[in-house]
Design goal:
133 residues, mainly alpha, 5 helices
C-alpha cells in the first residue's frame, strides 16, 4: 500500500514505500480522485461492497485516470505482463481487485461482481478531466 484516502480527513502517503517524486505524485493524484468521488457522490458508502459499487467505481476511475500511473505500459512490462493490446484495462482490473481485497466488507465474489457491474460506466467517467489522459 502506497497511500490512502481517509474520508473527510486526509490523504495519506506512505513514504516508506515510495522512492521517487513521480511515485508520490501518482499516489496523490490517485487518492485525490477518491476524494473527488467522495465529495460528488450522494450517500457514497465505502463499506457496502455487496449492495453498492462505490468503492469499485472509484478504484476503476483512479486506476484509469492517473497519467503514467501504476498501469503505465513500462511498469506493466517490468512486472512481467507483456501484452500489446488491452494491457491498461487488464491492469486496472487487477488493481481494483487488489484494492477491494483490502476492504474488510468485500468478499472476493462481491468485489468482482461490483467491479463488473460498474466497469463500463466508471471506466468511461473522466470527471474532473475532459478526457482520460
Amino acid at each position: 500500500m502506497s497511500g490512502g484516502y481517509v474520508r473527510g480527513e486526509r490523504i495519506v502517503v506512505c513514504s516508506n514505500h515510495l522512492t521517487i517524486q513521480d511515485e508520490v505524485t501518482q499516489v496523490v493524484i490517485h487518492e485525490l480522485i477518491h476524494a473527488f468521488d467522495d465529495c460528488r457522490a450522494a450517500n457514497l458508502d465505502w463499506t457496502n461492497c455487496a449492495q453498492s459499487a462505490h468503492h469499485a467505481c472509484s478504484e476503476i476511475r483512479a486506476g484509469h485516470l492517473v497519467v503514467s500511473g501504476d498501469c503505465h505500459y513500462k511498469r506493466e512490462l517490468l512486472r512481467g505482463y507483456v501484452k500489446l493490446r488491452g494491457h491498461e484495462q487488464d491492469c486496472v482490473r487487477r488493481r481494483v481487485m487488489k484494492s477491494l481485497a483490502n476492504n474488510p466488507y468485500c468478499s472476493p465474489a462481491a468485489a468482482k461482481d461490483a467491479m463488473e457491474a460498474v466497469w463500463d460506466t466508471c471506466y468511461n467517467d473522466t470527471k474532473p478531466f475532459d478526457r482520460a489522459p
